[in-house]
From TrEMBL:
<dbReference type="InterPro" id="IPR016160">
    <property type="entry name" value="Ald_DH_CS_CYS"/>
</dbReference>
<keyword id="KW-0560">Oxidoreductase</keyword>
<keyword id="KW-0520">NAD</keyword>
<dbReference type="InterPro" id="IPR016162">
    <property type="entry name" value="Ald_DH_N"/>
</dbReference>
<comment type="similarity">
    <text>Belongs to the aldehyde dehydrogenase family.</text>
</comment>
<dbReference type="InterPro" id="IPR016161">
    <property type="entry name" value="Ald_DH/histidinol_DH"/>
</dbReference>
<feature type="domain" description="Aldehyde dehydrogenase">
    <location>
        <begin position="16"/>
        <end position="480"/>
    </location>
</feature>
<dbReference type="Pfam" id="PF00171">
    <property type="entry name" value="Aldedh"/>
</dbReference>
<dbReference type="InterPro" id="IPR029510">
    <property type="entry name" value="Ald_DH_CS_GLU"/>
</dbReference>
<feature type="active site">
    <location>
        <position position="252"/>
    </location>
</feature>
<dbReference type="InterPro" id="IPR015590">
    <property type="entry name" value="Aldehyde_DH_dom"/>
</dbReference>
<dbReference type="InterPro" id="IPR017628">
    <property type="entry name" value="OHmuconic_semiald_DH"/>
</dbReference>
<dbReference type="InterPro" id="IPR016163">
    <property type="entry name" value="Ald_DH_C"/>
</dbReference>
<protein>
    <submittedName>
        <fullName>Betaine-aldehyde dehydrogenase</fullName>
    </submittedName>
</protein>
<dbReference type="GO" id="GO:0016620">
    <property type="term" value="F:oxidoreductase activity, acting on the aldehyde or oxo group of donors, NAD or NADP as acceptor"/>
</dbReference>
Length: 484
C-alpha cells in the first residue's frame, strides 16, 4: 500500500497516524496518508526559519532562479509519474491533467523565477524643502515562512502557483495539500532534493483542516504569511487565525460565476465555451460557470445545444479514451452535489438533462460519478443559483437587455469570474467593466497569461497573485531614502 509521508527538513517522515486515500473512480483505497500533528508543524516551522538564515537566505536571485528552472525541468522529466499521481488522486480525464495540471504546474516555477530576476523596483528623486536633493528606492525582501493551504481540484497546479513565486522571492514554504490529494505535493519533495533545493525550503505536511495540520500551520506564530485557495467559509476561519500576530493573507476563494451569452455571439463557439466552463473537471473548477444567462432570441436554441453537448460527454475513468467527464473527488462531495440536484427539483426546476447518477459498469459503480446537469425555470432566489455547488451543472435563464444581464451577474456575494460571449466590441468592453469580478473572459474561458493578475473580488478573495502581483504578497517592500 502506498504511504504518503510528510516532507520535513529534506526528509520523508512517517507519523504512524494514518488515514485512507481512496480513488474517486472506484472508491478503492490507494494509499495511507500520514497525518502531521503539532510536533511536526513545530519541526517544519523551525526548519523553515533555519533555512531562511542559511544557504537559501544568502543565495543570489540568479542562483535561486536557476534552481527553480531545474525544479520545472525535473517535473517535466518525471512527467508520467506526476501525471499518474494526479490521475490516481483526482480521477480526472487523462487529457485534462496531461494538458493543464502537470505542464502548468512545472511552468509556474519558470515563470516566477524569470519575473523575480527581471522586475525592477521603483526609484524617485525629489527636491527637499531646503532645496537639496534626495533619492528613494525600493528594496524587496522575503516575507519569511509561508503557509500554503491548498484545495483538491487542481492540486499540483494551484499549489505551485503559490510555491513558485514564494520560493522565487526567497521565502520558505510549508504546504498543506488537501487530504483528498496528497500525492503530487509529496512527489515534489523528491524533486526538490534531486535538484539541490536546500533542506527546509519546501516542506509538506499532511492532514485535515480544523484541529489538524491545516489549523496548526495557520495558528503557528512562526508562520509569517498564509496563502490559501479553497472555500470562502474556510477562508474566514484562516483569517481569524491569521489575525493573531496580524499576519498577511492571500486568498483565492469560492465563486458563483455567471456566463453571459448575447444574441450576436458566435453561437457554436459560445456553446463550446460554456460546455467547457460548466463541465470541465466535472465542474470542480473555481472559475466554472454555474449560472448562464442567454439573450432571449437565442435562448431555446442555446438550451437545446448545451443539452446536446452535455449528453455527448463521455463519462468514465481517466484512462478511458475520449473521456470528457470524470468522477467527483469524494463520496462526501458527491452527496453534496446530489443534494443540490434534489433541491433544484424540489424548488421547481425543469431538468433539461441529467439530475442523477449514471449507470457505470463494474467497479466504477462504486465511483463518485454524477450526470452533467442543466436546469431552467428557477427563480434567482433558488439555492442552486445562489450557492456554489462545485459540480457539473448549471442553470440557464433568459435576459433581454445588457443592463439586466449585468445586474443578474452581479447579484451575488461572490466575485470571482465571468465569461461573456458577444461579437460587439462595445458590448464586450462595457460589460467587462461593469461586472464585479477579478477575472472577466470575453469569447474565451480559462485562458491564462501567467503574468497577469489572478484573484477574486467580493467574497471570492483577498489580493491578487500572478506576474508582478505575486511579489506584493510574497515580499516586504522597504523604501530607502537617501539625502544627497
Ligand atoms: P476547503 O476550503 O474545504 O479546503 C481547502 C484546504 O484548506 C484543504 O487543504 C483543507 O484541509 C484546508 N482547511 C480546511 N479548514 C481549515 C482550517 N480551519 N485551517 C486551515 N486549513 C483548513 O476547499 P476544497 O478543498 O473543498 O476546495 C474547493 C473550494 O476551493 C471551492 O470553494 C472552490 O471554489 C475553491 N477554489 C477556489 C479557487 C480560486 O482560485 N478562487 C481555485 C480552486 C478552488 P482538508 O480539506 O484536507 O481538511
Amino acid at each position: 500500500m502506498k504511504q504518503f509521508l510528510n516532507f520535513i527538513n529534506g526528509e520523508f517522515v512517517a507519523t504512524g497516524r494514518t488515514f485512507e486515500k481512496r480513488a474517486p473512480a472506484n472508491n478503492q483505497v490507494i494509499g495511507q496518508v500520514h497525518e502531521a500533528g503539532q510536533a511536526e508543524v513545530d519541526a517544519a516551522v523551525a526548519a523553515g526559519r533555519a533555512a531562511l538564515k542559511g544557504e537559501w537566505g544568502r543565495m543570489s536571485v540568479v542562483r535561486r532562479a536557476e534552481l527553480l528552472h531545474a525544479v520545472a525541468d525535473e517535473i517535466n522529466r518525471r512527467f508520467d509519474e506526476f501525471l499518474a499521481a494526479e490521475l490516481a488522486d483526482t480521477g480526472k480525464p487523462h487529457s485534462l491533467a496531461s494538458h493543464i495540471d502537470i505542464p502548468r504546474g512545472a511552468a509556474n516555477f519558470k515563470v516566477f523565477a524569470d519575473i523575480v530576476k527581471n522586475v525592477p523596483t521603483e526609484s524617485f528623486q525629489m527636491t527637499t524643502p531646503d532645496g537639496g536633493t534626495a533619492i528613494s528606492y525600493a528594496a524587496r525582501s522575503p516575507l519569511g515562512v509561508i503557509g500554503v493551504i491548498c484545495p483538491w481540484n487542481l492540486p499540483l497546479l494551484l499549489m505551485t502557483w503559490k510555491v513558485g513565486p514564494a520560493l522565487a522571492c526567497g521565502n520558505t514554504v510549508i504546504v498543506k495539500p488537501s487530504e483528498e490529494t496528497p500525492a503530487t505535493a509529496t512527489l515534489l519533495g523528491e524533486v526538490m532534493n534531486a535538484v539541490g533545493i536546500p533542506k527546509g525550503v519546501y516542506q509538506v505536511l499532511h492532514g485535515f483542516g480544523p484541529g489538524s495540520a491545516g489549523e496548526f500551520i495557520t495558528r503557528h506564530p512562526g508562520i509569517n504569511g498564509i496563502t490559501f485557495t479553497g472555500e470562502t467559509r474556510t477562508g474566514e476561519a484562516i483569517m481569524a487565525a491569521a489575525a493573531k500576530g496580524v499576519r498577511p493573507v492571500s486568498f483565492e476563494l469560492g465563486g458563483k460565476n455567471a456566463g453571459i451569452v448575447f444574441a450576436d455571439a458566435d453561437f457554436d463557439k459560445a456553446v463550446a465555451g460554456i460546455t467547457r466552463s460548466a463541465f470541465e473537471n466535472c465542474g470542480q473548477v473555481c472559475l466554472g460557470t454555474e449560472r448562464v444567462y442567454v439573450q432571449r432570441p437565442i435562448f431555446e436554441k442555446f438550451v437545446q445545444a448545451l443539452k446536446d453537448k452535455a449528453e455527448s460527454l463521455k463519462i468514465g475513468p481517466s484512462e478511458l479514451p475520449g473521456v470528457g467527464l470524470g468522477p467527483l473527488i469524494s463520496a462526501e462531495h458527491k452527496a453534496k452535489v446530489l443534494g443540490y440536484y434534489a433541491q433544484a427539483v424540489e424548488q421547481g426546476a425543469t431538468v433539461v438533462t441529467g439530475g442523477g447518477v449514471p449507470d457505470m459498469p463494474g467497479e466504477y459503480a462504486q465511483g463518485h460519478f454524477v450526470q452533467p446537469t442543466i436546469w431552467t425555470g428557477l427563480p434567482e432566489t433558488a439555492s442552486v443559483i445562489r450557492e456554489e455547488i462545485f459540480g457539473p451543472c448549471c442553470h440557464i435563464a433568459p435576459f433581454d437587455t445588457e443592463e439586466e444581464a449585468i445586474a443578474l451577474a452581479n447579484a451575488t456575494d461572490y466575485g470571482l469570474a465571468t465569461t461573456v460571449w458577444t461579437q460587439n466590441l462595445g458590448t464586450a468592453h462595457r460589460v467587462a467593466n461593469a461586472i464585479e469580478v477579478g477575472l472577466c473572459w470575453v469569447n474565451s474561458w480559462f485562458l491564462r497569461d501567467l503574468r497577469t493578475a489572478f484573484g477574486g473580488a467580493k467574497a471570492s478573495g483577498i489580493g491578487r497573485e500572478g506576474g508582478v502581483h505575486s511579489l506584493e504578497f510574497y515580499t516586504e517592500t522597504k523604501n530607502i531614502m537617501i539625502r544627497l
